[in-house]
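Run log, item B.
One chain of 355 residues. Sequence copied directly from the ordering sheet:
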Amino acid sequence: MAWFSALCDDDYEFLGQPDPELFSSWEHCRNIVLTADRYGFDNVLLPSGYQLGIDNTAFAAGMAPLTKDIRMLLAIRCGELVVPQVARQMATLDQMMDGRLTINIISSDIPGTKVESEPRYQRSTEIMYVLRELLDGRSVDFQGDHVQLTLDPPRIRTVSGKSPLFYFGGLSPAARECAASGADVFLMWPDVTSKMLEVKADMDARAAAKGRSLRYGWRSHVIVRETEDEARAAARRLLSKLDDETGNEIRQKSLDSKSAGVARQAELREGADDEGYAERHLWTGVGRARSGAGAAIVGDPDQVLGKLNELAEAGIEAFILSGYPHAAECDLFSRYVLPNINHGRLEFEPHPVVI
């Protein structure tokens, strides 16, 4: 069970209404992570942005000595730094965290550049391969289309001596092939269960064809209250000050605003009922003012727990949740739902990256 720290100016009381007290800052985002750590979450996602928010690598380094148990899922945008430097950074961070680092591989465009989908994901596959080799302590002699490198691994190593797990998400054909080649945990944005199972079956087949297997994660928002009526009222309140123009402006700021995953979230909204529900407890209203994961699990504690159990039974092993405001919803979820979930760190030996 993981929470989310809003490092990219993505925290609101009312969607689309900026609140200076909720802007991304060291203090605000630190408090979100400390809240999640105090309540016993296993991991926390630290997203990456450029125009918005604060730097997540510097933030992770600052949080390392302030946290005890929670892992940090650090988003790395492939191509922003040369791979040997990324390997040194990740090994250093993992030591600072006493082995609590996990990595979220991001393939969005680098700020100021535009690369088509297929070469962009091929670049990510090459980077994952070289990064894993270096973090596993192996020398590299690799001549790819995007990465050319002959190099021994850095002296500094992770606590385990091995690479942290790679989390990855994406729905385009190129993204799916990249994930099948190199990801350990394939993250899916919220969708109806039947569609999620279709994607999972496709990814299982793609990974098996490469001699690999994947674990699966779910990234969504959550709104939990004592009753379903109160939860639905909280969802309506969240959107009560949003207009369509502002929501569209917010969505367009993201570097992945044209991705296949974002397009699927738009389809989910378009197919929802008049209140924005694609399923009884899956509400798509968040996506009106957010480019990425655009739906929330909404309900009373038993209903939210039931939905999470349904997804777990379908093969989801990692959940990355968030809510608005993030610290307040973390508190509610931690009191109403988290104590009833048997959870712990996702531990397994990852497969090698396949080129």
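Observations after the first pass:
- The first helix runs from residue 26 to 39.
- DSSP finds eleven helices and 13 strands in the chain.
Flagged for discussion on Thursday.
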